Each structure stands twice: as structure tokens, then as C-alpha cells.
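FYI - complex with zinc ion, inputs then prediction.
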Amino acid sequence: MGKADRRIALVAAFLVALLSARSDAAQEWTDVRVAGPFVCRADFPMQGLERLLGELAGLQNDLATQLGVRPPAEPIELYLFRDEPSYRRYLAYYLPNMPYRRAFFFKGQGPGKVLVHRSADFEVDIRHECTHALLHSTLPMVPLWLDEGLAEYFEFPPEQRAHGNPYLRSIKWNVRFGRTPRLDKLEREGDFSKLDQSDYRDSWAWVHFMLLGPPEAKAELTQFLADIQASGPPGVLSERLAARIPDLAHQFSSHFTDWRQDDPSGVKAMLGKMGGLVN
Ligand SMILES: [Zn+2]
């Protein structure tokens, strides 16, 4: 790093520090807890959230064991708001130029930050955004579709991820009629605002297939992420999968045709998702 670059970095670090000081001064946090790599601050008492906080600590472990993603080198800041008005006031003050979203993850020079307010989707939103935060804390980049597919997968509690996601019904229906979602089409989408609900569902489906389908698919995903982590050129995952699994579309279809659906709470979660935008 050259001298000029270092100066830019120092200025950026100073601005981040200034913003943090401003944040501490202006916002009173009622409760602070640590859960795995997450430092959680809330403007309400967090009694009763122990199970969820425990799950967040487990989420890091899940990403490590299932994807081989390294633990973050720095803490991730999680900010929880008692209701939507409180959350909106915070956004209006600190992020006045950002288009409104039901929950946020963002990362600049410093630690990643996740912002979520209490709602019917509180836990789903926290797990979704914290998955993004964990991925981006250690990977230099994540393809957009894979970023969202993984967040959609891990936003459910562990016992519901495999069989309880409401997307499963729709994907099973599609493969019954020979419709396999095009991974190469998802890979070409680089604009987050252009993703629609079917893109989220299809991204989730490819993640489900890779994590729970043929072992070669999981091995290819894991190696793809390892190449990104090592800052090597990862290539295109759809091409890597097709090279490793010649009958890829057939394998995808068989995976979902045979997969059992168990959906006691999924419909409620899907209805909640339709109520607001979450990235
Ligand atoms: Zn997302």
C-alpha cells in the first residue's frame, strides 16, 4: 500500500470512528449482548431472545461446517429496534439517502452492520441479514444470486431448512412440468434491485440442491467458495457444476421430485415475505 493510499485509509478509518462516536452519542441502547461473532445492541431489553441469539452463534458454525467459510476476523454489529417507527427514525438520521428496506446489511471499511426491527418476520430477517454479514466478513466477493440463495436458505431455523421452506412447494411443482430454473440466467443478474421473488426462490433452490443433493454438487460449491476465499479466479459456478455433473438438469429435477415437504410454518413465513422488501 502506497503512502497516498494509506492516508486515504486513515481518513476513512477516522470518518468511521467519528460516525461510531456520533452513533453512540445519539442513540441510547438499552441492552447489549454478544452472540458468537455478533455484538447485538437493542433499544429494548433482549430477555427472551436467548434462543435466537444462540442460533446466531450457531449460524457461524453452520457456514463453517457446511460451506467451509472461515469465521469472521472482526465482530459484526447487529442493531435491533423495538418497532418500525424506531427503526425508521434511526434510518432517517444515519442513512437518509438510502431507499427504505425492511432490514439492512451493509459493510464499508469497518465491521459489517445489520439493522432489523421487531415484526412478524423479526427472526427470519435477522438470520437472513446475518448470513449476508457472515459471508461478506470473510469472502472478498459473493455472486449476487448465491449471496441471496444462501441467505434465503439459512434464514430458517436449522430444523426447517431442509424440508420446511415454502419455496419447496413451488419448485416441486415446476420440476414436475419440466421447468428447471436457469442458473446461468441468475448468474447474469448483477443488479440487486432487479431480483424478483422468483429469482430469490430459484437461487434458494440451487443452494438447496447443492447442499442436500448429490455430494459432487456440494463439493463443487465448497470448492467455488474456497477459490473465492483464496482470492483465486472462481470461474462460473454453472459451468463448473455442468462439467462435474453431466446430467445436471436431470439431477436437479430428481432431487426435488423425491424431496419430502414438511411445511407447518412455511406458509406464514411466505405471507410475511410478501409484506415488505428484504435484501
Ligand atoms: Zn438478502
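Residues 128, 132, 148, 151, 279 surround zinc ion (CB under 6 Å). The CA atoms of residues 26 and 93 lie 10 Å apart.
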